[in-house]
Amino acid sequence: MRGKPVSGKTLFVLCLGSFLAGSLFTSQTWTQSSQTKESQIPNIPNHVSSLEAVTQDRDHERKLAEVNSRDIMGEVSKTHQAIQQVTG
């Protein structure tokens, strides 16, 4: 069941009133939360050291991958030579 249609002017006034009421409430909580956010600002040296640790881990993983690929290529070469000896 539908109610009465709301005029555009009434809708505009309701929206404006809601916006102003929301602005009033958030401005009060915004000033309180901004004070606590200052204490939550991360320390840049901590981020730099964690970034360096991640970079070192990635370098280690890359080196392991290179060693493994060399091992695989060595095995492929040995297999190829064995096949050549058997067939040739």
Quickly list its features:
88 residues; transferase; mainly alpha; 85% helix; single chain; 2 domains
Count helical runs.
Answer: 2
Uncertain segments: none
Structural class by SSE content: mainly alpha
Principal-axes shape call: elongated
Our measurement of the CA-to-CA distance between the termini, rounded to an integer number of angstroms, reads 91 Å
Strand percentage: under 5%
Q: How many domains, as an integer?
A: 2
**Biggest beta sheet summary:** none
- Quick check: average pLDDT? 76
Computed Rg? 34 Å
Percent helix: over 70%
What is the H-and-E element order? HH
Number of DSSP strands?
0
Organism: Morella rubra
Signal peptide: 1-31
GO molecular function: glycosyltransferase activity
Keywords: Glycosyltransferase, Signal, Transferase
Chain-wise SSE layout:
Elements: H1 8-38, H2 44-87
Q: Can you walk me through this structure?
A:
This protein is mainly alpha-helical. It has 2 domains: 1-39; 42-88. Helix content is 85%, strand content 0%. It is built from 2 helices and no strands. The chain has helices at 8-38, 44-87. The N and C termini lie far apart (91 Å). The model has no long low-confidence stretch (mean pLDDT 76).
